[in-house]
Amino acid sequence: MTTFGKLAATEAKLLLRTPVWVAFGVLLPTVVLLGVGFIPGMDQPRDSTGGYRFIDLWVPSLVVIALAMLGLQAIPAAVAGYREQGVLRRLATTPVPPAYLLLAQVLVHAVVALTGTGLMLTAARVAFHVPMPRHPLSFVLTLLLGLVSVFALGLIAASVARTSRGAGGLAMIVFFPIMFLGGVYLPRPLLPQVIREIGAYTPPGTQPLQDAWVGAGVQPLQFVVLAAFALGGTALAVRLFRWE
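Structure for Transport permease protein, as requested:
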């Protein structure tokens, strides 16, 4: 097994020893879906949503929950916790580059996030007959770019904070705006037009996820912006990373 493979396997074992984040990432989107989906009126078509049901348009927003919880809470807490406990100081004496550690964090948390997303989509289909994305390739590409872009923001906080509490505080600066712009607190069709426009180009790409879902077609510029967040954020996190 390669050095990165061993590191990723170790990070996966450590994550499973703190199952609270695994539970949040895997189960929380589905729990919220079921809790809100059974509210009267959520499964009725409305003129304000272009004839769609609220539940149909809200499912892509639930992806934000898994990505934000893991990328902006779990990852910063884990990496900054290593620094606080002196783990990173010991790793600094090994040939392991910082990029390996950050990439391993992204990989293991991405598996949890994608598992939670898959479970939520299955529950939406079974419980509320929500159709699957009409443009599946665009949906998957947006999901992956959105995942990396949100995780990159969490890595930036983790790379500079000295303590897990400090990392969590830094990540909170973008956590609540991402949840709001992503339509978690209020369905996006009910948000003001200017807020919807801003949210259409911010991670994790709720609007392009929704467009791919209903078959409206994703604007190329939205892919470009998400890719810029993903690549630029990851590169900045690696550059800012410090062992101590």
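The chain has one domain: 3-240.
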